[in-house]
Amino acid sequence: MTAGAAATATRGPDEVLLGFTHALRAAGVGVTHDRGASFLTATALVGLGDVAAVRAAGRATLCTGPDDLERFDQVFAAWFDPRGELPRSRPAPEGAPAPALLPENDPGPGAGEQDDDEVVRAMASEVEVLRHRDVAALSPAEKARLAGMFASLRVRAPVRRTSRHERWRRGDVDASRTVRASMRRMGEPAEIVRRRRSVRPRRVVLLLDVSGSMSGYADALLRLAHRMTHALPRSRVETFTIGTRLTHLTRSLSLRDADRALVAAGESVPDWSGGTRLGESLGVFLDRFGRRGTARGAVVVIVSDGWERGDPSLLAEQVARLHRVAHRVVWVNPHRGKAGYEPVQQGVLAVLPHVDDFLAGHSLATYAELCEVIARA
């Protein structure tokens, strides 16, 4: 028995079943903590020896609608081996994409530099293809690989000029400091001191739509928020979710481990994969964190597909209010970068006159572009 097989054999049933719920969440199914607990209770009642009963228990407790059933079946088939008792690990199929790492062992005596170059190019090409893939269309294994690639995002804080000045090698002459330096030398000429306006990082506010139509992108968006939270200066990133209500997630995402942070965030959001009332949620955000609060002078990023069940005019009114308070408003739509997309949703048409940037947000490459837009704001 290999080391990997031995490690799998030592895993308890609850660990494997919880891992299955995490894989479902990564695939876009809105699995909450309560649904995961219900799944464990149901499997304990039906027994792990009956594959069909476990599958039925999972479909009943973990799926919220018809759209989740197909994804559930795909993840169930990939996670469990239906040929034996559950839970049982399933070996990786031949031809499955390997992690984008260089080979650990030295090449054999017959391998040349040309073969090494081809391997490196193939791996780099595979990573580049994954960067441009639609997050919602990835398999659970591809999403797991993509999760590790968020650390490669280059995140820089937007800055603003303050009324204070600081000493600098170029810029305007600092007359007072230059005169004082000359006085210390008894009136003899001294080095000319120059200064510039000091800068401070702007706050970045992320408003993430976690409604049912955005469930396929929710995991990636939370990972993006976690990356920004820990890459930018302390207290410079605030994250909220919007759907049927507003939820503040900054404290949950402050956990250093990304997976633990996402679990904590999932447990904090009561309207995961629910409806969409963007106008009302933005109104609550502005009332609590608007003119004199978090949004004042900040770069506000709204990530949503614009499917609004409420009145689009209310959404337009709230985004207009936000534009008057914030330094810059960026709207990110996952469908923006897809071929043939047209902004025909009423919610999108209502907010376009009041946003500064309208960006795509369906892949890691588009998230990198978003980071650059934020840094230049």
Automatic annotation (TrEMBL):
Segments forming a coiled coil: none
Domain (VWFA): residue spans on this chain: 201-368
Segments of skewed composition (Low complexity): 92-104
Transmembrane regions: none
Region annotation Disordered: where it falls in the sequence: 84-116
InterPro entries: UCP010256 (IPR011195), Uncharacterised_CoxE (IPR008912), VWF_A (IPR002035), vWFA_dom_sf (IPR036465)
PANTHER family linked to this entry: BLL5662 PROTEIN (PTHR39338:SF6), BLL5662 PROTEIN-RELATED (PTHR39338)
Protein name according to UniProt: VWA domain containing CoxE-like protein
Protein's organism: Nocardioides dokdonensis FR1436
